[in-house]
Design brief:
By secondary structure, this protein is an alpha/beta fold. 44% of the residues lie in helices and 12% in strands. The protein has a three-stranded parallel β-sheet. InterPro entries: aa-tRNA-synth_I_cd-bd, aa-tRNA-synth_I_codon-bd_sub2, aa-tRNA-synth_I_CS, aa_tRNA-synth_I_cd-bd_sf, Glu-tRNA-ligase_bac/mito, Glu/Gln-tRNA-synth, Glu/Gln-tRNA-synth_Ib_cat-dom, GluQ/Sye. A motif ('HIGH' region) lies at residues 10-20.
């Protein structure tokens, strides 16, 4: 079996949101599980709205999620291929010029609806003579070009939805080329899928109707080439039940990153939400791929609640080893012999990775101790063992304090935590105390 080739084809007209990331993750993880290739293909033929800046930001967002395309392609650089395909369709009589304005088309649609008819394009342009077309062009009208659909039912076996079909007689002939000569999504997408030998197209269920049109285009442009297999997954909706849009910026990957959520938490929630798999924290995308299966994706909309990211980020951080985070800690000077035991001590108490920086200050920097019951703290300071300290020092020290003062439970431990860390709660002091060291501990307990 040939290794599959999949693609993620965003339009660089804005920052991608969690719904777009879901499509990218589905494709990338499918490639991982099937030992295939993952292509990032920018659908940037809309020159008025597409920008290089947005394309770069999309690459940054995907890299943050851990997605590394095997190939990056820009449709704006492939115009010659689309021109050749358009010429082929014109020769076949499948691409025809239309001169109606948007206002005229809207008026026709309203008339059809008023008569109880479906608002399907009536193919009036096919009735124009050569003289009619020349007259319209002389008037300054420039044509847009439609693909002539065959009035048949197109069927395919969807890898998520099962048997699917669309009656193309109920569809308008799609516009493939705008009045200004630029291409809409449909034709470049099919041409590139053929040229890149894409084997599987995994995308949202809002593209189901497009599939019927594209299958007819595959047949017209490359009848001998096997069309890709399709999989249309359920869409993410917001916790309020609304659809996601790049225009609103809701749940953009950039905003989730800026809020401090872990990339692996975002990836796991975006991928596993709306499937029969339980949403869980993972250490890597390879581990996430082990829980990914198109057959497990539900047909119902998948509700994405950002508040779930808080707990998932906490759990994801707790799973990470020191090697997983070494390069993230180093720029904050969390290095040296204390770095690994420090990470292992604090990782289970982090809501965000940035919280680790505050705990490093507790270990290595200056804090404002919270001192309650100064007499008790003075007794505790007097009982501080001599260094070297290890994981048993806390236990030996607090047992000695208990024997001397008779205190136990919260009355024993809480004043010590407040003085040593300046916080009400946090990592186990058995692990933190050796990192704080004798000099800082004595000073925070009230020593000179």
């Amino acid at each position: 079996m040939t290794a599959p080739i999949v693609r993620f084809a965003p339009s660089p007209t804005g920052r991608i949101h969690i719904g777009n990331a879901r499509v990218a993750l589905f494709n990338a993880l499918f490639a991982v599980t099937q030992h295939g290739r993952f292509v990032l293909r920018f659908d940037d033929t809309d020159f008025a709205r597409s920008t290089a800046a947005f394309a770069r930001e999309i690459e940054i967002d995907l890299a943050w999620l851990g997605l590394k395309p095997d190939l990056v392609v820009r449709q704006s650089e492939r115009g010659a291929l689309y021109d050749a395909a358009a010429a082929q369709l014109k020769e076949q009589g499948r691409l025809y010029p239309c001169f109606e304005t948007a206002e005229e088309l809207e008026k026709r649609r309203k008339l059809q609806q008023a008569r109880g008819l479906p608002p399907v394009y009536d193919r009036a342009a096919l009735k124009l003579s050569e003289a009619d077309r020349e007259r319209l062009e002389a008037e300054g009208r420039r044509p847009h070009w439609r693909f002539l659909l065959e009035p048949k039912t197109v069927a395919w076996r969807d890898l998520i939805r099962g048997d699917a079909h669309i009656d193309c007689a109920s569809l308008s002939d799609p516009v493939l080329i705008r009045e200004d000569g630029s291409y809409l999504y449909t034709l470049p997408s099919v041409v590139d899928d053929i040229d890149m030998q894409i084997t599987h197209i995994i995308r949202g269920e809002d593209h189901v109707t497009n599939t019927a049109v594209q299958l007819q285009l595959f047949e017209a442009l490359a009848a001998d080439w096997p069309a890709p297999q399709f999989a249309h997954h359920n869409l993410l909706i917001s916790s309020e039940g609304e659809g996601l849009s790049k225009r609103t910026g809701a749940l953009s990957i950039a905003s989730l990153r800026e809020e401090g959520y872990e990339a692996l938490a975002v990836a796991a929630l975006a991928t596993l939400t709306g499937s029969s798999e339980a949403v869980r924290a993972v250490r890597s995308l390879d581990e996430l791929a082990e829980h990914f299966d198109l057959a497990h994706v539900s047909r119902n909309p998948a509700r994405f609640d950002p508040s779930d990211l808080d707990a998932l980020t906490h759990r994801a951080l707790a799973l990470l080893t020191f090697e997983d985070v070494r390069e993230r800690l180093a720029p904050h000077d969390i290095v040296g012999f204390k770095a690994e035991p420090f990470w292992l001590a604090v990782r289970g108490n982090l809501a965000r990775f940035s919280d680790a920086l505050e705990w490093w200050r507790v270990v290595e920097g200056e804090i404002e101790p919270l001192r309650e019951d100064l007499g008790f703290l003075e007794e505790a300071r007097a009982l501080l063992p001599e260094e070297p300290w290890d994981g048993e020092t806390w236990s030996r020290w607090t047992e000695a304090i208990k024997a001397k003062t008779g205190r136990k439970g919260r009355a024993l431990f809480h004043p010590l935590r407040l003085a040593l860390t300046g916080a009400e709660k946090g990592p186990e002091l058995a692990a933190l105390l050796p990192l704080i060291g004798h000099a800082r501990a004595a000073a925070r307990l009230g020593g000179e």
